Amino acid sequence: MFFPEHNRTWKALSTTFFSKELQGFEVESKWRLLTENPVPTIIRFMDDMRAGRWNPVHIAKTMGKLPVGLRYFELQFEFWAIKDELESLSNYRQVAMVAVVPGADMFQVAFKAGGLPKFLCTDKQCLNPPLIRREERKGNWVREEEATIIILNRFPSADKVATMTRQKCYVYVHNLESRRNFSISADLCQYKSKTLSQVEVEYKGRSGIWLPDVTGQHITLDFLQIHRVLGERYGEIILPTTQTKMEWITEG
Prior knowledge:
By secondary structure, the chain is α+β, with helices and mostly antiparallel strands. The protein has helices at 4-16, 38-50, 144-154, 217-233, 245-250; strands at residues 18-19, 25-33, 57-59, 71-83, 92-100, 107-112, 131-137, 159-175, 180-191, 194-207, 238-241.
């Protein structure tokens, strides 16, 4: 039986509250973008979503207080790391990333647990397994001096090892079946004479109040739905990858 009042209550909960599954972790998959054109790529994705080619994934109509629709920014990002001779990929282990507004004394710190990649799914049939790592975002914009103090208070031996420029275009999407939300983004990054362009799929949370998927198994299924669309429809412009920005910066 259909209860209109109950339905209105559900809609209110689904737009106001989010279940923070895997809280304290960043979960995302990456694809190498061969065209290096972030904005046209996301516009193409959105056009296909409106045409139903991503079903059951659609452009999110609401994300709580977050703005929806096509979004774009161009920022600088500082990479802070500590030397770790035990790491096989490089002598540095990333501990923080700082977003910087060019030409302004505005800095935003996010702590990252760097090191060897860990994957949400290790099954061989899991196409392009999402990477999972601890992340702690500091939501406030602060001055450069305060950002440095925040990092060094936690990691006294940390150094700023690189600064890159990043153009990013993105849109929030919503799975109508699972009620989970994702950010679909494309970016163009420049570090010294190097250029990297990627498409990223990042899990953002589940609309409404739910028991969390602490194992990540159901979240993985949502990723696989999106991955099938990406692989089948856009194989000429994207290639699966697990390369992080830190690995790209420190590669030979």
